[in-house]
Design brief:
Helix 12 (about 330-340) links the parallel strand 11 and strand 12. The protein folds into four domains: about 5-155, 2-Layer Sandwich (Alpha-Beta Plaits), CATH 3.30.70.270; about 165-420, TIM Barrel, CATH 3.20.20; about 470-610, PAS domain (Beta-Lactamase); about 625-780, Alpha-Beta Plaits. By secondary structure, the chain is an alpha/beta fold. The longest helix is centred in the N-terminal third of the chain and has 22 residues, at about 160-180. The protein binds ligand C2E and magnesium ion (MG) (2 copies). Ligand C2E binds next to strand 7, helix 7, helix 8, strand 9 and strand 10. One magnesium ion binds near residues 324, 325, 345 and 381.
Length: about 775
């Protein structure tokens, strides 16, 4: 055997291969295995910078010195250099930490001017460990796990690192599938204008909702995908999804808002991101101005020029480029000089650091002024309080983003959010086009935007539709199909349970009525030429349940119908409970109408039909779908509309929205495992249901967060109920572990603190944050001050 093949030339230590062979022999030796053994993996962070600063020869001397130090302190079994600045030791497990610290001091002391960090990962060999490579890997992983943790030098491998590594592997191997199967979703966080508080865009943030690992945040999967050079897959997907979503949103009549997407440095080395973006934009046919590119400050300073080249290409191509997380690193101001940007996004840490100190206003004002002078807009991230918003107004920051204005939301939630903020573009989808008018009037035909049809072709298809709606057979078939959908046994049964009224609204006259089964109720008293209003009054009085009388009578109100018609609404629907017979429960009824002008009069056609069966079967299905499988509580999707509905209807009395969060839930998962974490959640769910389930809506929002909405409660009662919850340490037994946990609460009172869902939610959340900031297991009412 050639000796120099076993030996590292620079240090004289064993190399990787001979270490493996020798170490394997040692651990196979039963005598030696009676002792406790460890593998230690040493790494020098920033060693490249050392070489760059002091030259390669000095770098070599540094490594020789390091090798001497390690050898001196760990001389008992084996010391090796695997590569560059990576040393590996097999040693007896005594005073390991002290000895590593000793090495650390020597390495640090060798050149006090150098900014190098030495790290060590330790793996304690188990009795049944037989594979030396695997053991070295675990030591290396332990070492890698403290990378960038400035003041940690040693880490011993444990189950948590193992779990992390497993998760990392899972993420790397499943990213394709997660994209394909829709586990990765794009969430949107609103960006607002500071002065008006109005939405001016969204940031796209990735979420991985995994069937096996649950809700994963970007801080978990992004670094792993970046390291594995797979991040471009995610980012290309996000851009495409965003473009599709924008197209869909605008198609539904929402105003188009620009969306910014995040790119990592690695993206630009793997793919032509400009092309990726451009393809997504063109194939969805949306303007370039709706996509902005965010690049984080730490990605910059890239020497290769690829990044700068691509950024310039984006800007020349008509896309805005934003610098993300400005102020989080060190070289911020130089970057402003070297790279061209449209928007500067201040890191949220920056805001927290400055906004609470007396000199901050001047500093912020100056940075913002400077940015403005060179034509860059400013945006502050992480705005969580009204106070911060006020501060931003004072210093003149243009845009803001943060939990105060809205959390990252799923696409469905964005729709709700826009509805609440009145951002839906005006337009009435219920008004059907008047086909005949369109056909008769050449100028009235609007070419649909996304069509290749000529005007003639469009007219032809319009005539087709007109023919269909005028054909008796078509109407009959449609009605038959429709009756079957509503779960009638036959069309004639449908007719029996329906009624059809034609009324002259202009002169308050009934023109025609086909009451079929309703006849009995109306007592045959009404004939054509009688007053429409009188009949409606009677129908409402006698056949509509008390709670809905108001709504139904408004719906049928003659003046309202006429007014609505003149403002462009010629048809509408209502669903209400009709009492068909005092002996049976009220039944769901659907009424729809269409108003047309006939001979200068407004004529309304009403059709009412029974939808009770349909409603019941639908309710059953939704009830099954609307529960969270883990806890059996409502999930967010179903609870939010329920709460909204109740809020709309509230008139007097108080209601409360309570937000809850398990303290240190992550710790519980890490220490006891996910199944134990699930058990804790189930326990909380059961308890919440017991305390609030009777008169409230209890919802499992996600992960460790719960939301409760209760109505008509006295505050003292509310407080009592919350105290049965917060302020206690609970315990759950899971296998052999007794798991203690606490829950924090924040709550708001309707209408004292607000009326709208989002407003209340945000404030409950703020109260929760506040409670948490004072410790675990506390509850806090929202405080407006
Ligand atoms: P970022 O681009 O700086 O995004 C802002 C982060 O701050 C988001 O975290 C957001 O949820 C969070 N945030 C927003 N408002 C507040 C607030 O008021 N208070 C607090 N405490 N946090 C707030 P998130 O979604 O966990 O994303 C973390 C980072 O992961 C992002 O930082 C971004 O750099 C990266 N990232 C997210 N999605 C993608 C993606 O699709 N591609 C790439 N390459 N990176 C992504
Ligand atoms: Mg960002
Ligand atoms: Mg940021």
């Amino acid at each position: 055997m050639l000796r120099n093949e076993e030996i590292d030339q620079l240090t004289g230590l064993s190399n990787l291969y001979s270490f493996r062979a020798k170490a394997q022999k040692m651990i196979d030796d039963p005598e030696l295995r009676k002792k406790d053994l460890v593998i230690i993996y040493f790494d020098v962070e920033n060693f490249k910078a050392y070489n760059a600063k002091f030259g390669f020869e000095a770098g070599d001397r540094f490594l020789q010195n390091m090798s001497k130090s390690i050898k001196k302190i760990f001389q008992e079994l084996l010391v090796a250099r695997f590569s560059d600045d990576h040393f590996v030791v097999l040693a007896y497990a005594n005073s390991i930490e002290a000895r590593i610290n000793d090495v650390y001091r020597r390495v640090k002391g060798y050149n006090p001017d150098a900014d190098v960090q030495m790290k060590a990962g330790v793996y304690e060999l188990e009795y049944d460990d037989s594979d030396i490579s695997m053991a070295c890997d675990k030591a290396r992983m332990a070492c890698a796990s403290i990378k960038n943790s400035y003041d940690v030098i040693v880490r011993v491998y444990d189950k948590e690192i193992g779990n992390r590594i497993n998760l990392a592997n899972y993420i790397m191997h499943n990213v394709n599938e997660a994209i394909l199967k829709g586990y990765i979703k794009v969430y949107y966080q609103p960006v607002v204008r500071v002065l008006s508080g109005k939405i001016c865009g969204f940031e796209a943030l990735a979420r991985w909702i995994d069937p096996e690992h649950g809700f994963l945040m970007p801080s978990v999967f992004i670094p792993i995908l970046e390291d594995a050079h797979l991040i471009y897959k995610l980012d290309a997907f996000v851009v495409r999804q965003v473009c599709e979503d924008i197209k869909e949103f605008t198609g539904q009549g929402y105003k188009a808002f620009p969306v910014s997407v995040n790119f990592s440095r690695a993206d630009f080395h793997q793919r032509d991101m400009y092309r990726v973006v451009n393809d997504a934009v063109t194939s969805n046919d949306i303007p370039k101005s709706l996509i902005h590119i965010e690049i984080t400050e730490s990605a910059l300073g890239d020497e290769s020029g690829i990044l700068k080249g691509t950024m310039d290409k984006f800007r020349q191509g008509g896309y805005q480029v934003w610098m993300d997380d400005f102020g989080s690193g060190y070289s911020s101001f130089n970057l402003l000089k070297d790279y061209e940007f449209d928007v500067l996004k201040f890191d949220m840490k920056f805001l927290q650091d400055f906004a609470s100190k007396p000199r901050e206003t001047a500093i912020w004002e100056n940075i913002i002024n400077m940015a403005e002078e060179i034509g860059i807009q400013t945006l502050a991230e992480g705005v969580e309080t009204l106070e911060t918003w006020d501060f931003l107004k004072r210093v003149g920051c243009e845009k803001a983003q943060g939990y105060f204005f809205g959390r990252p939301m799923s696409k469905e939630e964005v729709v709700d959010y826009l509805d609440e903020y009145g951002e839906k573009a005006l337009g009435d989808s219920s008004a059907e086009p008047r086909y005949q008018d369109l056909l008769n009037d050449d100028n009235a035909i609007l070419l649909e935007e996304d069509t290749t049809e000529t005007l003639e072709e469009q007219k032809a298809s319009l005539a087709e539709e007109l023919y269909m709606s005028n054909s008796e057979m078509y109407t009959k078939l449609a009605a038959k199909g429709f009756a079957a959908l509503l779960e009638y046994n036959s069309y004639s049964q449908f007719q029996k349970y329906s009624f059809f009224i034609v009324a002259d609204l202009t002169n308050d006259k009934l023109l025609n009525l086909h009451l079929s089964k309703q006849r009995k109720i109306l007592d045959k008293r009404y004939r054509s030429e009688d007053s429409y209003e009188d009949m409606i009054d009677e129908i409402v009085r006698d056949t509509v349940i008390q709670e809905e009388k108001g709504d139904v009578s408004t719906f049928f109100n003659r003046d309202r119908l006429v007014l609505a018609y003149h403002s462009g609404i010629s048809s509408d629907d209502i669903e209400f409970h009709r009492i068909a017979n005092v002996k049976v429960a009220p039944r769901w009824t659907h009424t729809t109408y269409e108003i047309v002008e006939e001979d200068g009069k407004l004529v309304a056609y009403f059709l009412s039909f029974d939808i009770d069966e349909y409603k019941k079967s639908k309710e059953l299905v939704t009830q099954m779908a609307e529960r969270d499988t883990l806890t059996g509580l409502y999930n967010r999707h179903t609870a939010v509309p329920l709460i909204r509905n109740r809020l709309y209807r509230r008139q007097k009395g108080k209601a409360a929205m309570i937000m809850m969060d398990v303290d240190e839930f992550r710790d519980i998962n890490d220490r006891f495992g996910h199944l134990a974490g699930d058990e804790v959640l189930r326990r909380i769910a059961a308890r919440l249901d017991e305390i609030f389930g009777r008169d409230g809506i209890v919802c499992h929002i996600d992960q460790d967060e719960f939301l409760v909405f209760v109505e008509d409660v006295e505050e003292s009662d509310l407080k009592n109920r919350i105290d049965r919850f917060s302020g206690n340490v609970f315990e759950v037994r899971f296998h052999n572990d007794l798991i203690p946990f606490t829950v924090s609460c924040g709550y708001v009172i309707h209408p004292d603190h607000g009326r709208g869902y989002h407003d209340l939610y945000r404030k409950a959340d703020a109260a929760l944050c506040n409670a948490k900031s004072h410790g675990n297991g506390l509850s806090q009412k929202y405080d407006e001050g």
